[in-house]
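Form 7-S
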Amino acid sequence: MILIPQSIRDGFLRAVGPIARGAIRAGFTPNVITTFGAAVVIGSAVAYWQGFPRWGGALLLASGLFDILDGQVARLGALSTKFGAFYDSTLDRIADGAVMSGLAFFYATSKQHGNVPMIAICLVGLLGGFLVSYTRARAEALGVNAKVGFMQRPERVVLLSAPQAFFGLALDGWVLAAIIVSLTVTSWATAIQRIVVVYRATLASSSAAASNSSRETVKPNPVPVAAEPPKPAKAVNV
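Output:
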């Protein structure tokens, strides 16, 4: 299940295409765009921490453009590299951690909205977000496709950006708190779902291997036949 329809994702890719081609002509590399996008996310985390959720949401939403743009530049400009993929994934993890950490700092330092349970929920949500990414990466390393679940990274970014950009701390911050709680719960549900998928896939492959092994016929060792004792030589009369 994916909350953002594929048609919307494809529409964003088409819209970003002209921007990507312009970036290629200007000499921007995917790694430069990835770095700039990460800096925007860190700015979003600082805005959340300082109690400016509208700015935090707007910056996080803008970072999604760079997240799409670096991939498009890499593909359209034939600039894809293994290090680029590694670098992009690494900065994505830093960005995810920065946003949830910024929200945790907000609840830890805000005089009006300080809330110890919400600090704990932010930290649990941070761990859940890391698990969503880790379980997929580790599954792919094992040759298992675990791209399942309804709280993948695009959904997490949209959920933590769009409502805050438009509503800020609406209803005395309860909208933001509800989003963080739902994000935490669904992130852990997605991680658990991926663990189950990998378990079933590896169990099926192990069972198939055991079945194939049992079908193999083992040839019995031939029983050695005892040699006949030599016959006594006949006596020759001289």
